Amino acid sequence: MRAWIFFLLCLAGKALAAPEPVGANPVQVEVGEFEEPTEDVEEIVAENPCQNHHCKHGKVCEVDDNNSPMCVCQDPSSCPATSGVFEKVCGTDNKTYDSSCHFFATKCTLEGTKKGHKLHLDYIGPCKFIPACLDTELTEFPLRMRDWLKNVLITLYERDEDNNLLTEKQKLKVKKIHENEKRLEAGDHTVELLARDFEKNYNMYIFPVHWQFGQLDQHPIDGYLSHTELAPLRAPLIPMEHCTTRFFEACDLDNDKYIALEEWASCFGIKEREYLPARAGDTPKFPPPRDAAMALGGGEQGRGMRE
């Protein structure tokens, strides 16, 4: 009987003991081996609608309620701080602005007003005192400007050994003027002498007048000069600088605020048949206007800036 009880106890002990795995994989399986894998998801950054949306001077891009880019006037107070006097600009309202950013932002806020329509960037630097242009001076302006342009081209030709300021085609045109014995030498001539020389040597003045128009007509090259494109002519080396604005206002015969090639040539006394080829696209590209001014030996550059 005791043996039988002992036998039953042994069977019960084996039943309670953990059974050995049969056919188990010898490689231990770690907890979490079969957990759901986690994928690395790249963060998708929404493209800024303003990234490739260009706004003109004085405006900045903002996104509207539909997430569409739009240009709005920039707050002048958001313009970067300036430190030097050379960053200041002068407007046609004879007001000095801290920078071109401040100027264009202010002009934008005046859009649609008479004041804003008349406001343009005049030149780089603080506003200076400009005397009024007298009627007698206004009459002299085209004569002295023509003579000055001719002398600028001759100076560029004489100094243009390695600078390539003139193309080969331009050099040939200026060479004819340079070698002409009848050419009036540079100097402070009377109005009467300048008028006689223009009548006597008319052909010498045709290319210089075209040349200056091509220099200024750059942004864009369209056969018209805006007020801002005329800004380089308001430089200390330009003869009778204080008459520039009044002269070209008188040249704008159709009052569209632009000087067409025909209006420009007519103001300088160039006949229509002489400027038709240039209007058809014969006006070449030229060096910056300030290079022409510097060629005369002056120390101060033309102060134009595009609008």
TrEMBL record:
Its main location: secreted. Residues 279-307 are annotated as: Disordered. Keywords: Basement membrane, Calcium, Copper, Disulfide bond, Extracellular matrix, Glycoprotein, Metal-binding, Secreted, Signal. One of its GO terms (biological process) is negative regulation of angiogenesis. It holds the Pfam family SPARC_Ca_bdg. Residues 1-17 form the signal peptide. Residues 296-307 have a biased composition (Gly residues). Gene3D superfamilies: 3.30.60.30, EF-hand. InterPro entries: EF-hand-dom_pair, EF_Hand_1_Ca_BS, Fol_N, Follistatin/Osteonectin_EGF, Kazal_dom, Kazal_dom_sf, Osteonectin_CS, SPARC/Testican_Ca-bd-dom. Residues 72-129 form the Kazal-like domain. It is found in: Secreted, Extracellular space, Extracellular matrix, Basement membrane. One of its GO terms (molecular function) is extracellular matrix binding. Belongs to the SPARC family. Appears to regulate cell growth through interactions with the extracellular matrix and cytokines. Binds calcium and copper, several types of collagen, albumin, thrombospondin, PDGF and cell membranes. There are two calcium binding sites; an acidic domain that binds 5 to 8 Ca(2+) with a low affinity and an EF-hand loop that binds a Ca(2+) ion with a high affinity. This is SPARC. It comes from Anas platyrhynchos platyrhynchos. The lineage of its organism: Eukaryota, Metazoa, Chordata, Craniata, Vertebrata.
